Amino acid sequence: xxxxxxxxxxxxxxxxxxxxxxxxxxxxxxxxxxxxxxxxxxxxxxxxxxxxxxxxxxxxxxxxxxxxxxxxxxxxxxxxxxxxxxxxxxxxxxxxxxxxxxxxxxxxxxxxxxxxxxxxxxxxxxxxxxxxxxxxxxxxxxxxxxxxxxxxxxxxxxxxxxxxxxxxxxxxxxxxxxxxxxxxxxxxxxxxxxxxxxxxxxxxxxxxxxxxxxxxxxxxxxxxxxxxxxxxxxxxxxxxxxxxxxxxxxxxxxxxxxxxxxxxxxxxxxxxxxxxxxxxxxxxxxxxxxxxxxxxxxxxxxxxxxxxxxxxxxxxxxxxxxxxxxxxxxxxxxxxxxxxxxxxxxxxxxxxxxxxxxxxxxxxxxxxxxxxxxx
Length: 375
Prior knowledge:
Layout: E1 3-12, E2 15-16, H1 18-27, H2 59-74, H3 79-83, E3 86-90, H4 96-102, H5 112-121, E4 127-130, H6 136-149, E5 155-162, H7 166-174, E6 198-206, H8 207-213, E7 219-228, H9 241-251, E8 259-261, H10 268-284, E9 293-295, H11 298-301, H12 308-322, E10 324-325, E11 348-349, E12 354-359, E13 365-373
Parallel strand pairs: 3-4, 3-5, 8-9, 8-12
Antiparallel strand pairs: 1-2, 1-6, 1-7, 5-6, 7-13, 10-11, 12-13
């Protein structure tokens, strides 16, 4: 059963909405890092001071609600549609700000975000929370597609979100994974990631349901693959074998991509393993990896943790609609280990109407999705 995208939503450092996200990516002007004691960015105070809600709802929940509202409106879903719709949520830490405010002894429940979203929109079908660290969003989209393909739902709202966390920043700093300057995933001197926050959502639907409702198809899921390295809690398996397997699974039904939205976050080992694994799988599938465009959005929007994979899917859908790949930011000398074409000066045409989204995470959980243009 064909799975299509009929709605998109996003909230980022560039503001609210998919249009704001796309315009920010085209400008390639990354935002500064929020200070550990500030929770916010001065350019966009509303985003980084999203409604705190009540005692059970934090910033992540508020961000996800806003992204889902845009996606639901974009897909023209009614209350009756949502009553039988499914819900998948990818998040790494959920409403971590609630736990941080209440101090030691507060138990973090990542599924609380899904409860908030389901209650706010009256989503009454099956619901799942995926918390596979930084690949959680990609898993949420893949899991939602599986619900449709297996006949458990006609419509699924797949979303992801994470808010700024002092605990997360402190932990990443302790492990030496933060770049003190900026996020520069394609630069040979990259020194780590930069944390971001935000939320993204896609409305997944069976092609038959979309035709019946008379809504536009924005992208078509052409293939997906999942795998786990089972190697190390934080580091990827050095050969990239399991990630390569996931990419190959996605490409088996889609064919070689014109562009890849990489998970690439500025951590040298992880970036190199990902590029090598993707490059080998694309080449094995008959693609020209040197002519495939590589793109790393975290350079300008930061690492949004559980939201990153959903953002990748939103960006892929917009690439397919516009026929463009935005430029990569913060590159002085391109990493020589990357086999892909890396645009720097400005947006470039999308060579072929297929975009691969790569999602990896701590625990070495890999999820890869291939998207084609909608009708």
